[in-house]
Every structure is written in structure tokens, then in C-alpha cells.
Amino acid sequence: AQSVAQPEDQVNVAEGNPLTVKCTYSVSGNPYLFWYVQYPNRGLQFLLKYITGDNLVKGSYGFEAEFNKSQTSFHLKKPSALVSDSALYFCAVRDQTGANNLFFGTGTRLTVIP
Amino acid sequence: DAGITQSPRYKITETGRQVTLMCHQTWSHSYMFWYRQDLGHGLRLIYYSAAADITDKGEVPDGYVVSRSKTENFPLTLESATRSQTSVYFCASSSQGAVTEAFFGQGTRLTVV
Question: How confident is the model at residue A98 (pLDDT cuts 50, 70, 90)?
């Protein structure tokens, strides 16, 4: 069965510093991977996805993610953090049983400190 | 305005009562989903629908019922609410299931007392 793990419940980073939010996955075959962000009292918003192609995927708001097949990771990155990036981030993987839906990780709360 | 809307935003109900959460999308997306969000669990899929009149169970379907008679609506019913169903519920839609971007509603915070 497929799964995603977000090993850090909380990540703190100073404004202007690079940030990384970690995600590892477990699937059989080729993964479809996603990152979503949730701001307070809001629904999730799509950031980026990897299906095939370049291992470095660029997304919204200056975020990017690096797909690493050997390490089964899909870490979210941003070169310079903004206070407004503070939010809850979810990694997700496509269900591979034939159902066309997503499995989400437990989320990582990112706090950018001014 | 195009979008996906959930109602109500907040609901308090008593144990054993039936309650229905509404979801409406204006994009004519084929796929719609219901998730619940709980601390420590992230989002878990309750039910999803690939088209009108086609629904299927997700990870945590027990105690919930869905229907989709029209493409744009996907209501979620708790037949007999329990305290364990206290949660934040999110509806989402996408044009091609898990291959394309999903758009989420703002959520319904349900408290069962």
C-alpha cells in the first residue's frame, strides 16, 4: 500500500533563510506526488506536483520540490523564507490501487520567524 | 463566482442526530472528495465520486453516507453522529481525480456533543 511520511511536525526557520519541509513516500511503481499548503481557517491549496520529467519541480509562491527516487523523498524547498509562508504543509501521493484519489501525510507546521 | 463552497462553516450537533454537510462546485469537475482532518492524522478520505451517481468508499467511510445526483453537489450525511466524528470536514473537487490539482472548500467544523 502507498503511504507518505512527514517526519517533522514542526519546522522553524528565520525569515530570509532557506527552508526545507521533508516528505518520504512508499509506493510500488512510479509515484504521483503533491504538495499542498493550508493557511489558518482555510482549505488546502495546491503548490506543485511531480508525475514525470525533471526531478526539480517548480510551483506556486516560489516553492520547489526535489524528487529523489533512490531516497524515496520529495522535499519541499524555498530559497528565502517569508513570514507569510507560515502555514501547514501537506505531502500527498496518489492512490495506486486503482482509485483516483490522494493519500495525505500528517502535515508539517512551518513557522517563519521575523 | 466560480469555486467550491461548503455549508455550514460551523455546526454543533448532539450524539445520535443526523446531520448533512453540503458541498457545491461550479467548475463541473468530474471528481469530488470528502476528507476529515484530525490532529495527528492529517487528512483522511471518507468518500469520493468520479461522476454523478458514482461514489466509492475511502479510508474512513463508516458512519457516513454520500450521494451525487448532480455533478455540482456532493452532500455528506452522518446518519447518527458520534463524538468521534467531531472533526473538520473538507470537500474538494478536481477535473481528473488525483492526477490534477484539487480545489478545496473552506471546511466545516463539526462538533458532536
Answer: low
Residues of A in contact with B101 (CB under 8 A): 46, 49
pLDDT at B1 over 60: no
Report the range of poorest mean pLDDT among A69-83, A95-109, B9-23, B77-91.
Answer: A95-109
Under 8 Å between Cβ of A105 and A25: no
**Could you give the C-alpha distances from A103 to A84, A85, A111, B75, in angstroms and in order?**
26, 23, 24, 21
* DSSP count for chain A of H helices, then E strands: 0, 12
- Report the alpha-carbon distance of residue A83 to residue A35 in Å, rounded: 19
Residue B34: name the closest of B79, B2, B99, B78 by CA: B78
Contact state of B45 with A103 under an 8 Å Cβ cutoff: yes
Which residue among A43, A44, A102 sits closest to B98, beta carbon to beta carbon? A102
Q: How far is CA A46 from the centre of its chain?
A: 10
Cβ–Cβ < 8 Å for A89, B42: no
Pair B110, B88: CB distance under 8 Å: yes
The three-class DSSP label of residue A61 is helix
